Q: What sequence folds into this?
């Protein structure tokens, strides 16, 4: 028996969808969100990052990579 009873992984694609619908980033288009979702899906499918890092960090990475792909700068503010 493997000890995976307490392992819960939150898919970070959900955070990208929530960001686009509830709190959209200024200057971030639907195409950019679509690309961020695709990047997140590939990161989730091809790597073990979802076990190593929190989901909100991986969602930020996917959004940042999508912004680089589109040549847009995403500013980080709190």
A:
């Amino acid at each position: 028996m493997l000890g995976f009873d307490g392992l819960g992984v939150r898919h970070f694609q959900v955070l990208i969808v929530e960001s686009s619908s509830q709190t959209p980033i200024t200057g971030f288009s639907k195409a950019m969100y679509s690309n961020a979702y695709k990047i997140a899906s590939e990161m989730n499918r091809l790597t073990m990052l979802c076990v190593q890092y929190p989901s909100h960090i991986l969602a930020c990475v996917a959004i940042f990579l999508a912004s680089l792909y589109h040549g847009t700068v995403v500013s980080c503010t709190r």
About this structure: The longest helix spans residues 30-46. The chain has a mean pLDDT of 82.
